[in-house]
Fold each of these.
Amino acid sequence: MAAQTGGNLWRASSTVSVEAPPLAADARADLVIIGGGFTGNAAALEAARRGASVVLLEAETVGHGGSGRNVGLVNAGLWLPPQDVIKLMGREPGLRLVDILAQAPALVWSLVDREEIECEATRNGTLHLAHAPSGFRDLAERHRQGVELGAPLQLLDAEETKRRTGSSAFHGSLFDPRAGTIQPLSYARGLAAAAIRAGAKLHGASKVTGVTHDGEGWQVTANGHVVKAKSLLLATNAYFNGIDLGTRPQFVKVGYSQFATAPMPEHLRKNILAGGEGCWDTAMVMSSFRIDRAGRMIVGGIGNEGGAGGPVHASWARRKLRQVYPQLADLPFEHAWHGHIAMTGDHVPKILRLGPSGLACFGYSGRGIGPGTVFGTRAAIALLEDRETELPVAPVEQHVERFVEPKALYYETGAVLTHAINPPPFS
Ligand SMILES: Cc1cc2nc3c(=O)[nH]c(=O)nc-3n(C[C@H](O)[C@H](O)[C@H](O)COP(=O)(O)OP(=O)(O)OC[C@H]3O[C@@H](n4cnc5c(N)ncnc54)[C@H](O)[C@@H]3O)c2cc1C
């Protein structure tokens, strides 16, 4: 059965709106921000609350990029286990990043509370699900590393995992009580609305085409107008589009798709993720599962449902749902959508120095709700106060990603091949 699509569920269900008229005149500001996702909006909010004048330019609408399309898992940390981060970055910077990101969900929850953002925030943790015995061994190691660093993780056996998820498909799970889920577009819009209340000027339909520095400050061009500012933050992540810029962020673009069912009937809802935990699994081509406030089951996986492999991904979602939740096998999919993840070679986010008081934050590698909020907030402080020590990772002059096109093709082809055969089509 092909997925029926009402498009992006988050657009259909968000109750938060933002007034962001197109840039229609030249402007001056302390800080100009390009991109209206978690990173840009968090930066605009922090900067405006510190009394700075802020102009944010968004090519489309607030949350158009990954921020309005993602699964909504508010995780503590990156994809990588902490010891891998430490090995890659060195002990001190690695431990610092792990520590900062461990507190990222707390920052997200505090902004949701302070700004009263209506984003279906559910603070009941996440479950990293073992898809196979090898996955459970991986989780046991992640548990060991996390606990060693003070994380309040719990390793759950298959029985307890079944009790929480309502599925017997998993071999155990790792529960992280710091984490949770949000309606991501509402969170992005809520941050933007809060930034506007704090005095920031946000402009949608304002695609930046040129960025220059004349020795005194930045000139950013959009809609034929120029915004002049002392500081610049580029917050376009995977959606970097059409900006004439000397040093551009480099990353591999990876597709991820989601399929949301009609709301589950009440009698099934009681036993399926009744705690509202967000889930993803340990498979190399990973899958995610969560429910929204209306009780829709949202199945996600690597791959682009809008591309040539779309029918394969849609058929996979139906089989995956049937395999993990046979009780939902006949529930129709009402929404399907996809987005692009900005992956770096080592899966660690980057901060690129663009020039004097100019930074780009990108490469969250699929973990951008907590990290985007943290990087945006801290980048605003670093730029306004000329204090780079505030940044979660040291800025670099250049970041080179090799073979970005072949790697993107590799991810998509791998996802298509995996989804074509697993779960088996005729099981
Ligand atoms: C399908 C999917 C699932 C994901 N799931 C999760 C998850 O569960 N948990 C998690 O933590 N992370 C997840 N992520 C990652 C997360 O969504 C991103 O890392 C995060 O949204 C990045 O936020 P951002 O603000 O940096 O960039 P974005 O939200 O991508 O925003 C960039 C913005 O820049 C704008 N832009 C681009 N070019 C220009 C220009 N020339 N002028 C003006 N504006 C421009 C774009 O229109 C866009 O709105 C997922 C990502 C995807 C795609």
Amino acid sequence: MPELPEVETVRRSLIGKIVGQRILSLRVADFPGVLADDRVEDVLARIEGRVVRGVRRRAKYLIIDLDDDTAIVVHLRMTGRLSAVTHEEPPLRFEHLAIEFANGLDLRFSDQRKFGRVIHVDGDELGLLEQRLGREPLEREFTAAWLEERLRRRPGKIKAVLLDQGLIGGLGNIYVDESLFRAGIHPERRANTLTPEEVRRLHRAIRVVLRAAIDGRGTTFSSFEDAEGNRGGYGGRLLVYGRGDKGPCPRCGTQLVRTVVGGRGTSFCPRCQPVGG
Ligand SMILES: [Zn+2]
């Protein structure tokens, strides 16, 4: 599932292709649910002729800002994918939606599992969405002191707390497992029992892991690609994610463990991430 680095990678690959471009048309194939509750003709009437002012990312959402202060919000969820291709390109596999631009490009949304959404929202709706999302972990406001203060109120397991999009926006299963490993923290530790030193290590690990993953253009696990069809290069640099029960810890050689925390498959090293902290 695409997380912050993957969505950021898609964003960067889209900027040069659609920013400043005028929307000519919108096509929806056999799955109108991709627009959530909206009807194709209504959305088309609202976005036709609008110009893309910018492409932003907020948590795991891609936000295409239009010149009338509305926006197209894309949530890739499990298998959603955005591709910028020419109008002439035949429909992609699992393609559900295409936005046609005046420069001859289409922005195509394809999604095998159909959990992803492409939603046109006005400024108020966008504000509500952004309000319920937590802090951006790569922004200046995400400090170790802030994280420590927040974790102190949370008795839940640290992994589940880090996955809460209302606390930190954009972390998912991959980068939480990687961050906890680098910080040497067991995924089932109670968040409010972390010492200030552990929180500082965790804070640093989250930022290091996310920055490195963005530099590597994300992780390709099942279907992730950027808008130009490039696969992510970070997968080979994952230390524990997806490796539980398969191999030794890259740091100490102990067999990694696979378990389930908060309903999510979780890999960790029982030696580098001891239960007692
Ligand atoms: Zn280890």
Amino acid sequence: MKRCVFIERDGILNEVRVGPKNQITPLTLEEFKLNLNAAAPLRRLKEAGFVLVVTTNQPGLSRGYQSRREIDRMHDLLRRTFPIDDILVCPHDESDHCPCRKPRPGLLIEAGFKWHLNLDHSFVISDKWQDAEAARTAGCTSLLVKSPWVARVHHDFVLDDLEAITDKILRLKPLVEVA
Ligand SMILES: [Zn+2]
């Protein structure tokens, strides 16, 4: 079985504007500014043999203010820029009570079936507590970048940046293999 690093999209792979309570997601390709500093860490993870899967909540799809076509354009750019294997989207609103809207673990579990992943030996990178909670439920190790959205839920590590997180995963990897 393969191991995976799941990566939250907004705030990790692309920039977000910061609103009073949460991040403001870009809705068009023109607003979609990539975080190019993520390219080198992702390459290191890819070279270490991980499947790289991007996950994202995009409730604007069901609320009607995010077009599917713009999301496809943004995700084409993501795939061209970063060595990622898959992008999984929850298009639902909170009121849909779907199994895939993070902090629920549905996207991780779906990827687990699709890519034959060992979730217990996989990792989740984000800057938000919802991903740490999804990781906990799915059995993955969570690593968060310091941010205002870490909150007080269970997480395994909070580190300064994506470089430090990548170093940590690559140090943990051999330990996981002998376990
Ligand atoms: Zn959903």
Amino acid sequence: MSAPPRRIVVVGGGAAGFFAAITCAASAPGSEITIFEKGPQFLSKVRISGGGRCNVTHSCFDARELTKRFPRGERALIAPFHRFQASDTVAWFESRGVKLKTEEDGRLFPTTNSSQTIIDCLLGEARAARVKLLLNRGVEHAVRSGNEFELTLSNGEKLTCDRLLLAIGGCRTPALGQLAVSLGHTLESPVPSLFTFHIETDWLRALAGVSLESVEISVPGTGLRERHALLMTHWGLSGPAILRLSAWGARELHERDYRFTLHVNWLPHLNAENLAITLQSFRNSHPAKLVVNTPMNPLSTRLWEALVLASGIARDTRWSAMSRAEQHSLIGQLLRSEFQVTGKSLNKDEFVTCGGVRLKEVNFKTMESRICPGLYFAGEVLDIDGITGGFNFLAAWTTGWIAGHAMTTE
Ligand SMILES: Cc1cc2nc3c(=O)[nH]c(=O)nc-3n(C[C@H](O)[C@H](O)[C@H](O)COP(=O)(O)OP(=O)(O)OC[C@H]3O[C@@H](n4cnc5c(N)ncnc54)[C@H](O)[C@@H]3O)c2cc1C
């Protein structure tokens, strides 16, 4: 007599849960796989991701290099990325008819520019593999009993299963991670990652919409430093440099209650000495021109004007009349503008939770719990988060894929 089919329950119908369920069904077609989703929709974050376009992954195809994009999880992801990484994700989707395109900054999106393409693919694959898909069914309690798990759903229904995967997403509050805790796990406390900075400086806010390709920002007294593009907004600063710094500093900045000093170097390719030489050449070549009207590349006229005025140089000052002290002040402003950050806003295009299930409690060869046999984890529920660029989905695909395989074989 053949063994009864293995009953596998996936809690959470997001990117990680779907990838795990589909992988599981492909590697053991006889298994009985069910996804329970507490909300009214599957893959709701995929839908809103990347501004509705879904930044599926990144074009960095080197496993070790990829891990460097994870403020939390870098070491744990080395071995998993050697088994399933960004290039495998591209191949996975392309072999299922989803073409991806790479943008200049390395982010990959479906060529349709619509996250619906990714949703259709995942839903189609899951249905074809006969994965049972149940909406509005939260898993409220899970208890390990003998070799199985006893589950209680939000509608009061009870059931048992042999393998249990928690793919419940970021535990923004400890209550959301209660299932993992009740099965013996520890949660690293949750704090937001990928946010923008509130700065009340009027002249900066007046520049909303201005962006720069490469600036260097840093937080004095910490090791936090980033060189990347910057965007000025109505509430302060945003753009890749800010989002990356917020990810690396998620805990430290939370501890400071998002109140800290930020330095911005607008011309990171120059030092004070060669900047002084450049200013001298301006002074020599157009002595009669107003300083505010002669911007230095690559700064826009509006930004240059604001920086000149912020350094205390009067609007009617000509290059020939600029004093040594004024020049010194301008160099200081260009290389180290100082702002007081007074708060944060979540970035609308992508945000994640820093924190989650403690990594040393999970075996990354299988994604199985080291504490509770038969229990697996995938996706943002883990204490793993990446910078922007498709890395957060990548972690969900990879850990989902590994858990999906292991749940049928282990
Ligand atoms: C606005 C926004 C845009 C983003 N854009 C990108 C992007 O373009 N690229 C990128 O790489 N990352 C992006 N991210 C991050 C990315 O969406 C997440 O990292 C990813 O969705 C994590 O997948 P997951 O399956 O682990 O969790 P989720 O997608 O959060 O899915 C978890 C699911 O579990 C369900 N659930 C929770 N508890 C239970 C329970 N007890 N019972 C049943 N179901 C439960 C939840 O309702 C949810 O549907 C974005 C995030 C946001 C918020």
